[in-house]
Write a structure and sequence with these properties.
There is one protein chain. Strands 1, 2, 3, 4, 6, 7, 8 and 9 form an 8-stranded parallel β-sheet that branches. Strands 5-10 form a two-stranded antiparallel ribbon. The protein starts with a helix and ends with a helix. Strand 3, helix 5 and strand 4 (158-162) form a beta-alpha-beta unit. Helix 8 crosses helix 9 and helix 8 crosses helix 11. It folds into 2 domains: 1-54; 56-335, TIM Barrel. It has 12 helices and 10 strands. It has 339 residues and is of the alpha/beta class. The chain binds zinc ion.
Length: 339
Amino acid sequence: MRHIAAKISRMAWTDIIAFDIATLLALALFVLFIWQQGPKASAAEKHESAAAINVKRIAISFDDAPRGPGAFLDGDKRPAMLIAALKKGGVTQAAFFVNPGRVSAAAAEQGQLVNYAAHGHVLANHTATHKPLSQVSAQAFLADIDAAEKWLKPLPGYRPWFRFPRLDEGRRDKVKRDAVRDGLKKRGLRNGYVTADGWDWYLEAQTIRAKKAGRKIDMAALRKLYIETHLESANFSDRLARRLLGRRPVQMLLLHETDLAALYIDDLAAALRRDGWEIVTADSVYNDPMAQISPDPDFADGTLLEMLAWEKQLSGGRWFPRNNIETANKLFASRVLLD
Ligand SMILES: [Zn+2]
Protein backbone atom coordinates (compact mmCIF):
# COMPACT_ATOMS: atom_id res chain seq x y z
CA MET A 1 0.00 0.00 0.00
CA ARG A 2 2.70 2.32 1.04
CA HIS A 3 4.42 1.53 -2.26
CA ILE A 4 1.28 2.30 -4.30
CA ALA A 5 0.64 5.43 -2.28
CA ALA A 6 4.22 6.51 -2.90
CA LYS A 7 3.78 5.81 -6.61
CA ILE A 8 0.53 7.88 -6.79
CA SER A 9 2.15 10.62 -4.84
CA ARG A 10 5.21 10.55 -7.18
CA MET A 11 2.90 10.53 -10.24
CA ALA A 12 0.87 13.38 -8.84
CA TRP A 13 4.07 15.30 -8.18
CA THR A 14 5.24 14.70 -11.78
CA ASP A 15 1.81 15.75 -13.03
CA ILE A 16 1.95 18.88 -10.95
CA ILE A 17 5.38 19.69 -12.38
CA ALA A 18 4.13 18.96 -15.91
CA PHE A 19 1.06 21.11 -15.25
CA ASP A 20 3.20 23.90 -13.87
CA ILE A 21 5.55 23.82 -16.86
CA ALA A 22 2.59 23.94 -19.25
CA THR A 23 1.05 26.78 -17.25
CA LEU A 24 4.32 28.65 -17.15
CA LEU A 25 4.80 28.15 -20.89
CA ALA A 26 1.28 29.36 -21.61
CA LEU A 27 1.80 32.29 -19.28
CA ALA A 28 5.13 33.13 -20.90
CA LEU A 29 3.54 32.98 -24.36
CA PHE A 30 0.67 35.16 -23.14
CA VAL A 31 3.05 37.71 -21.65
CA LEU A 32 5.08 37.69 -24.88
CA PHE A 33 1.90 38.22 -26.90
CA ILE A 34 0.79 41.12 -24.68
CA TRP A 35 4.29 42.59 -24.78
CA GLN A 36 4.26 42.49 -28.56
CA GLN A 37 0.69 43.66 -29.08
CA GLY A 38 -0.44 45.64 -26.10
CA PRO A 39 2.12 48.05 -24.79
CA LYS A 40 2.64 49.85 -28.12
CA ALA A 41 -1.02 50.78 -28.43
CA SER A 42 -1.48 51.64 -24.80
CA ALA A 43 1.71 53.71 -24.71
CA ALA A 44 0.60 55.58 -27.83
CA GLU A 45 -2.83 56.14 -26.34
CA LYS A 46 -1.35 57.33 -23.06
CA HIS A 47 0.97 59.63 -24.99
CA GLU A 48 -1.90 60.97 -27.07
CA SER A 49 -4.19 61.59 -24.12
CA ALA A 50 -1.45 63.23 -22.07
CA ALA A 51 -0.35 65.29 -25.05
CA ALA A 52 -3.90 66.26 -25.90
CA ILE A 53 -4.41 67.61 -22.41
CA ASN A 54 -1.06 69.08 -21.50
CA VAL A 55 1.32 69.62 -24.37
CA LYS A 56 1.30 72.48 -26.81
CA ARG A 57 2.73 71.15 -30.09
CA ILE A 58 3.57 73.16 -33.17
CA ALA A 59 5.29 72.66 -36.52
CA ILE A 60 6.71 75.40 -38.72
CA SER A 61 6.06 76.09 -42.39
CA PHE A 62 7.33 78.64 -44.88
CA ASP A 63 5.28 79.70 -47.89
CA ASP A 64 6.31 81.33 -51.17
CA ALA A 65 9.68 79.65 -51.63
CA PRO A 66 11.54 81.14 -53.39
CA ARG A 67 10.86 84.79 -52.56
CA GLY A 68 12.63 87.78 -54.07
CA PRO A 69 15.03 90.13 -52.26
CA GLY A 70 14.03 91.35 -48.81
CA ALA A 71 15.11 94.40 -46.80
CA PHE A 72 18.50 92.96 -45.88
CA LEU A 73 19.26 89.81 -47.88
CA ASP A 74 19.05 88.87 -51.50
CA GLY A 75 17.05 85.83 -52.51
CA ASP A 76 20.18 83.76 -53.16
CA LYS A 77 21.76 84.19 -49.73
CA ARG A 78 18.63 83.73 -47.68
CA PRO A 79 18.00 79.96 -47.99
CA ALA A 80 21.42 79.00 -46.59
CA MET A 81 20.93 81.40 -43.65
CA LEU A 82 17.47 80.03 -43.02
CA ILE A 83 18.77 76.44 -43.03
CA ALA A 84 21.48 77.39 -40.51
CA ALA A 85 18.99 79.25 -38.28
CA LEU A 86 16.57 76.30 -38.32
CA LYS A 87 19.40 74.00 -37.28
CA LYS A 88 20.46 76.36 -34.51
CA GLY A 89 16.84 76.55 -33.34
CA GLY A 90 16.53 72.75 -33.27
CA VAL A 91 13.79 72.70 -35.94
CA THR A 92 14.47 69.34 -37.57
CA GLN A 93 11.68 69.27 -40.17
CA ALA A 94 9.95 72.40 -41.44
CA ALA A 95 7.73 72.43 -44.53
CA PHE A 96 8.42 74.70 -47.50
CA PHE A 97 5.45 75.43 -49.76
CA VAL A 98 6.96 76.14 -53.15
CA ASN A 99 5.95 78.20 -56.20
CA PRO A 100 8.00 76.53 -58.96
CA GLY A 101 6.95 79.24 -61.46
CA ARG A 102 9.08 81.67 -59.47
CA VAL A 103 12.24 79.56 -59.38
CA SER A 104 14.89 81.41 -61.37
CA ALA A 105 17.40 79.56 -63.52
CA ALA A 106 20.14 80.55 -61.04
CA ALA A 107 18.17 79.25 -58.04
CA ALA A 108 17.46 75.98 -59.87
CA GLU A 109 21.12 75.67 -60.77
CA GLN A 110 22.19 76.24 -57.17
CA GLY A 111 19.67 73.65 -56.03
CA GLN A 112 18.28 76.02 -53.40
CA LEU A 113 15.08 74.09 -52.85
CA VAL A 114 16.72 70.68 -52.99
CA ASN A 115 19.08 72.01 -50.33
CA TYR A 116 16.16 72.43 -47.89
CA ALA A 117 15.32 68.76 -48.41
CA ALA A 118 18.98 67.78 -48.00
CA HIS A 119 18.78 69.30 -44.49
CA GLY A 120 15.72 67.30 -43.45
CA HIS A 121 12.96 69.69 -44.48
CA VAL A 122 10.07 68.84 -46.78
CA LEU A 123 8.73 70.44 -49.97
CA ALA A 124 5.10 70.82 -51.02
CA ASN A 125 2.82 72.55 -53.52
CA HIS A 126 1.70 76.20 -53.32
CA THR A 127 0.71 76.41 -57.05
CA ALA A 128 3.24 77.29 -59.75
CA THR A 129 2.35 80.98 -59.97
CA HIS A 130 0.58 81.90 -56.69
CA LYS A 131 -2.77 83.06 -58.09
CA PRO A 132 -5.44 83.06 -55.34
CA LEU A 133 -8.45 80.84 -56.01
CA SER A 134 -10.94 83.75 -55.89
CA GLN A 135 -9.23 85.36 -58.88
CA VAL A 136 -9.20 82.38 -61.28
CA SER A 137 -11.49 79.53 -62.37
CA ALA A 138 -11.32 76.16 -60.60
CA GLN A 139 -9.97 74.66 -63.84
CA ALA A 140 -7.15 77.22 -64.16
CA PHE A 141 -6.36 76.84 -60.46
CA LEU A 142 -6.07 73.05 -60.74
CA ALA A 143 -3.87 73.44 -63.84
CA ASP A 144 -1.57 75.70 -61.79
CA ILE A 145 -1.43 73.00 -59.11
CA ASP A 146 -0.60 70.36 -61.75
CA ALA A 147 2.23 72.50 -63.15
CA ALA A 148 3.77 72.80 -59.67
CA GLU A 149 3.23 69.11 -58.97
CA LYS A 150 5.10 68.09 -62.13
CA TRP A 151 8.11 70.10 -60.99
CA LEU A 152 8.00 69.06 -57.33
CA LYS A 153 7.17 65.37 -57.44
CA PRO A 154 10.61 64.08 -58.49
CA LEU A 155 12.38 66.09 -55.76
CA PRO A 156 13.65 64.57 -52.52
CA GLY A 157 11.59 65.61 -49.50
CA TYR A 158 8.42 65.89 -51.63
CA ARG A 159 5.12 65.65 -49.75
CA PRO A 160 1.65 65.40 -51.38
CA TRP A 161 0.36 68.52 -49.60
CA PHE A 162 -1.18 71.61 -51.10
CA ARG A 163 -1.43 75.04 -49.51
CA PHE A 164 -3.82 77.64 -50.89
CA PRO A 165 -2.11 80.94 -51.86
CA ARG A 166 -3.20 83.64 -49.37
CA LEU A 167 -5.20 80.88 -47.60
CA ASP A 168 -7.99 81.71 -50.09
CA GLU A 169 -10.14 78.56 -50.44
CA GLY A 170 -12.72 80.15 -52.73
CA ARG A 171 -14.28 82.52 -50.18
CA ARG A 172 -18.07 82.72 -50.82
CA ASP A 173 -18.04 80.51 -53.94
CA LYS A 174 -18.88 77.07 -52.53
CA VAL A 175 -19.17 75.45 -55.98
CA LYS A 176 -15.62 76.49 -56.83
CA ARG A 177 -14.38 75.56 -53.36
CA ASP A 178 -15.84 72.06 -53.66
CA ALA A 179 -14.58 71.61 -57.23
CA VAL A 180 -11.04 72.29 -56.00
CA ARG A 181 -11.50 70.07 -52.94
CA ASP A 182 -12.58 67.23 -55.27
CA GLY A 183 -9.69 67.99 -57.63
CA LEU A 184 -7.20 67.74 -54.76
CA LYS A 185 -8.68 64.43 -53.64
CA LYS A 186 -8.46 63.01 -57.19
CA ARG A 187 -4.81 64.01 -57.33
CA GLY A 188 -4.03 62.41 -53.96
CA LEU A 189 -3.16 65.81 -52.47
CA ARG A 190 -4.18 66.84 -48.97
CA ASN A 191 -4.89 70.37 -47.81
CA GLY A 192 -1.69 71.61 -46.19
CA TYR A 193 -3.67 73.86 -43.88
CA VAL A 194 -2.27 76.18 -41.23
CA THR A 195 -3.70 76.84 -37.78
CA ALA A 196 -1.60 79.78 -36.54
CA ASP A 197 -0.81 82.94 -38.46
CA GLY A 198 0.82 86.18 -37.25
CA TRP A 199 1.06 87.97 -40.62
CA ASP A 200 4.85 87.72 -40.89
CA TRP A 201 4.51 88.70 -44.57
CA TYR A 202 3.16 92.06 -43.52
CA LEU A 203 5.95 92.71 -41.00
CA GLU A 204 8.41 91.84 -43.80
CA ALA A 205 6.64 94.27 -46.17
CA GLN A 206 6.70 97.03 -43.52
CA THR A 207 10.45 96.45 -43.02
CA ILE A 208 11.19 96.56 -46.78
CA ARG A 209 9.15 99.76 -47.08
CA ALA A 210 10.96 101.41 -44.14
CA LYS A 211 14.38 100.42 -45.49
CA LYS A 212 13.59 101.78 -48.96
CA ALA A 213 12.36 105.05 -47.45
CA GLY A 214 15.64 105.38 -45.53
CA ARG A 215 13.95 105.11 -42.12
CA LYS A 216 15.99 104.11 -39.07
CA ILE A 217 15.08 100.59 -37.91
CA ASP A 218 15.61 99.38 -34.35
CA MET A 219 16.75 95.82 -35.14
CA ALA A 220 16.42 94.60 -31.53
CA ALA A 221 12.84 95.91 -31.44
CA LEU A 222 12.07 94.30 -34.82
CA ARG A 223 13.34 90.95 -33.54
CA LYS A 224 11.26 91.30 -30.38
CA LEU A 225 8.11 92.22 -32.33
CA TYR A 226 8.55 89.25 -34.72
CA ILE A 227 9.01 86.78 -31.87
CA GLU A 228 6.32 88.19 -29.60
CA THR A 229 3.70 88.39 -32.41
CA HIS A 230 4.20 84.78 -33.48
CA LEU A 231 4.32 83.46 -29.94
CA GLU A 232 1.06 85.29 -29.22
CA SER A 233 -0.50 83.97 -32.45
CA ALA A 234 0.43 80.40 -31.41
CA ASN A 235 -1.12 80.89 -27.97
CA PHE A 236 -4.21 82.51 -29.51
CA SER A 237 -4.61 79.42 -31.74
CA ASP A 238 -4.11 77.14 -28.75
CA ARG A 239 -6.98 78.84 -26.91
CA LEU A 240 -9.15 78.86 -30.06
CA ALA A 241 -8.53 75.12 -30.64
CA ARG A 242 -9.51 74.28 -27.07
CA ARG A 243 -12.70 76.34 -27.41
CA LEU A 244 -13.57 74.64 -30.71
CA LEU A 245 -12.34 71.08 -30.23
CA GLY A 246 -11.93 70.72 -26.47
CA ARG A 247 -8.39 69.49 -26.99
CA ARG A 248 -4.94 70.52 -28.16
CA PRO A 249 -4.32 69.50 -31.80
CA VAL A 250 -0.88 69.72 -33.40
CA GLN A 251 -0.66 73.32 -34.62
CA MET A 252 0.91 74.45 -37.91
CA LEU A 253 2.46 77.92 -37.91
CA LEU A 254 2.39 79.87 -41.16
CA LEU A 255 5.53 81.82 -41.96
CA HIS A 256 7.08 82.88 -45.26
CA GLU A 257 10.56 82.48 -46.64
CA THR A 258 11.51 86.00 -45.50
CA ASP A 259 14.60 87.85 -44.27
CA LEU A 260 12.97 88.04 -40.85
CA ALA A 261 12.69 84.24 -40.74
CA ALA A 262 16.36 83.85 -41.74
CA LEU A 263 17.34 86.34 -39.02
CA TYR A 264 15.05 85.32 -36.17
CA ILE A 265 13.64 81.78 -36.55
CA ASP A 266 16.13 80.30 -34.07
CA ASP A 267 15.12 82.91 -31.48
CA LEU A 268 11.42 82.28 -32.18
CA ALA A 269 11.94 78.52 -31.73
CA ALA A 270 13.67 79.16 -28.39
CA ALA A 271 10.88 81.51 -27.28
CA LEU A 272 8.22 78.92 -28.18
CA ARG A 273 10.03 76.28 -26.12
CA ARG A 274 10.44 78.61 -23.14
CA ASP A 275 6.68 79.14 -23.30
CA GLY A 276 6.03 75.37 -23.10
CA TRP A 277 5.66 74.58 -26.80
CA GLU A 278 7.11 71.39 -28.25
CA ILE A 279 8.33 71.93 -31.82
CA VAL A 280 7.32 68.89 -33.87
CA THR A 281 7.80 67.78 -37.47
CA ALA A 282 5.59 68.99 -40.30
CA ASP A 283 4.68 65.33 -40.90
CA SER A 284 3.05 65.03 -37.48
CA VAL A 285 0.62 67.90 -38.20
CA TYR A 286 -1.32 66.14 -40.93
CA ASN A 287 -1.55 62.93 -38.88
CA ASP A 288 -3.65 64.80 -36.31
CA PRO A 289 -7.37 63.87 -36.39
CA MET A 290 -8.06 67.53 -37.15
CA ALA A 291 -6.67 66.94 -40.67
CA GLN A 292 -9.90 65.04 -41.47
CA ILE A 293 -12.08 68.13 -40.93
CA SER A 294 -13.41 69.99 -43.98
CA PRO A 295 -15.02 73.15 -42.63
CA ASP A 296 -18.10 74.58 -44.34
CA PRO A 297 -17.99 78.30 -43.57
CA ASP A 298 -19.82 81.01 -45.56
CA PHE A 299 -16.42 82.51 -46.34
CA ALA A 300 -13.68 79.94 -47.01
CA ASP A 301 -10.48 81.81 -46.21
CA GLY A 302 -7.92 81.79 -43.40
CA THR A 303 -6.56 79.22 -41.00
CA LEU A 304 -8.41 75.95 -40.43
CA LEU A 305 -9.33 77.06 -36.90
CA GLU A 306 -10.62 80.43 -38.12
CA MET A 307 -12.80 78.69 -40.72
CA LEU A 308 -14.16 76.31 -38.08
CA ALA A 309 -14.85 79.25 -35.76
CA TRP A 310 -16.65 81.02 -38.61
CA GLU A 311 -18.67 77.88 -39.44
CA LYS A 312 -19.72 77.43 -35.82
CA GLN A 313 -20.34 81.17 -35.38
CA LEU A 314 -18.17 81.00 -32.27
CA SER A 315 -18.70 83.98 -30.00
CA GLY A 316 -15.67 85.94 -28.84
CA GLY A 317 -12.47 86.42 -30.84
CA ARG A 318 -12.23 84.29 -33.97
CA TRP A 319 -9.18 86.05 -35.44
CA PHE A 320 -5.79 86.90 -34.01
CA PRO A 321 -6.19 90.61 -33.18
CA ARG A 322 -2.77 91.65 -34.55
CA ASN A 323 -3.72 90.41 -38.06
CA ASN A 324 -5.06 93.84 -38.89
CA ILE A 325 -3.35 96.54 -40.99
CA GLU A 326 -4.10 99.40 -38.60
CA THR A 327 -2.92 97.50 -35.50
CA ALA A 328 0.19 96.20 -37.28
CA ASN A 329 1.09 99.71 -38.55
CA LYS A 330 0.74 101.21 -35.07
CA LEU A 331 2.94 98.48 -33.53
CA PHE A 332 5.62 98.90 -36.20
CA ALA A 333 5.68 102.71 -36.03
CA SER A 334 5.76 102.91 -32.25
CA ARG A 335 8.21 100.09 -31.58
CA VAL A 336 10.48 99.56 -34.58
CA LEU A 337 10.93 102.94 -36.28
CA LEU A 338 13.44 105.21 -34.59
CA ASP A 339 12.73 108.38 -36.60
ZN1 LIG B 1 1.74 82.30 -50.48
